């Protein structure tokens, strides 16, 4: 896996993944940025959310659960002094589908947290990670 980050202007950078996708990162104006992109530390939370959401949906679908949507909200608290690492992170899952088994959703989240989500396991070495979840029934429409 590989990535490249290049300074564009002021404190704006473009990050490019090894798979050829790009994202703009920028700082807040008080740090010389123009607020035109995601902050790098926000990228970590987005990466965590994406990693665990991918796991949960994949695990549930492999278990033949009819998942139609998965929304993951990640909130992080950072230390007051440098390095301003994440000290706590909370992940809220909202899994939508048809006749989803709550026990299977809970198990998929636990498997992601404990075994499959590299981002969660790495960040969990420094921060306390908590989670909660809800299952929403997807109503059939005709």
TrEMBL record:
Gene3D superfamilies: 2.20.25.10, 3.30.300.20
Organism: Microvirga guangxiensis
Pfam families linked to this entry: OsmC
Name of the protein in question: Putative redox protein
InterPro entries: KH_dom-like_a/b, OsmC/Ohr_fam, OsmC/Ohrsf
